[in-house]
Amino acid sequence: MNPLLEQFLQEARENLAFIDQNIEKLRDGDAELLNSVFRAAHTLKGGSGIVGFESVKEITHHAEDLLDQVRAGKLTYTSEMEDALYDAFDEVVNLIEAAEESEDVVEADASRTSGIIERLNELMGKSGQEESWVSPMQMVPDTLSVVNDDLPFLASFSEAIPFHTPELSEENFDEERLYAIYFDADENCMLFGNDPIYALSLLGDKLRYVTTCISEESAKEVMDADTEDELLLMRTAIIAFVYGRYTEIEEALFNFIDDLLFKPLDIVTLLNISRGEIATLDVIKDFAKHGAQKFAESDMEGLKASIDETLTLIGKETIQYRRLVRLKEVVDKIDRDYYPQMRGFFDVLNSNESFIPDSSASPAVEAAPAIIEETAAVQSQPEVSQAVEFTQKDKEVLFAVLKQQLVQLRKNNNDATKKRVEALIRKPLIDLGYTFQESYSSCESLIEGIEAILGEGKVTAVVQAVEVKTPEPAVTQSTAPIAKTAIEESVVSEVESKATVVEERVEKAAVKTAQEPKKNVIGKTVKIEQESIDHLMNIVGELLVAKNSLPYLADNVGDMNAETIRRSILEKYSFINRLSMQLQDLIMGM
Q: Is pTM, for the whole model, over 0.85?
């Protein structure tokens, strides 16, 4: 028999036995029991699909849908549903028994299968209607928890990223695309042999990046853990970035598939960063005007050079800095047909508004002449010096700029930085009535001059930067030797700040055990052959013999010379080393 089919049949028996024992108990309204029965049915459906047992997959798919609607509160569990589920899973038992006898998948009686499915559909109110396709993926509820973190892998990512993610359908669902995958797994998963890092390693080079974070509270609980079980609790939030098909991901992460939240990534989503200080910056106004022109001219190299220059003029803590870094990472992946729609990105660059592309924008080749002509007209106008009436808002913005430039001066204490900052702030300060020297002798004297202006009190209202305040991670990420491709290069990202949804999920995990009852773990057991268990017991017995011989050796050391002691210790070491290697090989095989 095919080993994969044999394993499926064994697990199917266990899941069917659990379902049969509990279908009647569902009338008691136990939500946790309902979830466990649903999970058993889902595991049965997934396994049957992997081995190609289509008849079992069809029946369990509809039974699972009925259970899911009851679970979601859309239907009330009735005796008719109970009878229908018994009939459905009885038929699955018959098919499993037939497969065991023939040692291969079998065809079901079409009329019998159709009758079962029709009855289940009637109970769900689907009778006579064509069943609509539903994506099996659960989506990430908060996109910002994915895109706000730094994603350095994008700079070298060579595959295409769509400008917009098309609506998922049955036809395009399994196409290759870039996914962000959030692990919403039970914290007890590793206690039952389900290691998320090992599961991710099965993706090979489809895994492009992993970011992890842990709250301070969870980190302290890890450090204070008293037992091995507590140390194995998964208290870390994991977001994996994978390029591949859903079926490939499902195969590798099968044990976690119900606990995964997906987000197909596109250019618009990646550019909508919302984390960072918000301030209106004149240098960004200038960049936005020229950036739109670069897109119109299809001058991506010029745009990237302009981004690099602008990044040196603004603080790394600003939202503009993060958005420009992300733009540089993805600019080469934007299809030329979407260049006109990028103008909307520059319109909101100086704010925290979301980038919503204008789908009615004309093609890039048509838009370019108009923008170039408009820009040329502006550049050809003579510069006219005129008095400008500054508002309180202008003063607030200037103070925000001064604070940002102080950061740059303190980080880059050199003459080039001093000259750049002087040139940037001299005219606005003089226009606002502040005394500012023609040139300062050093960065230190310029810093003192700016600090003096900020402390003069002429402007009482200062821009209040908006930032996401989250605790610093108490434990830095660590890598695991799980694969020798992208995992070695990017399995862990230093997380500066956690988005709200991810932080809440991690912090809730720390108290979940105390607040919630233990979950049934159907589908989370590890299947081991009896022969392996016997072999394991033999090795353990030999290890006990080796351990018991060590005190004897210690008692007789006084009667031995150095060479005899050395030889005896090496003999014991060789014996224990051989058993340890056998034990390691056996457990890895399991």
A: no
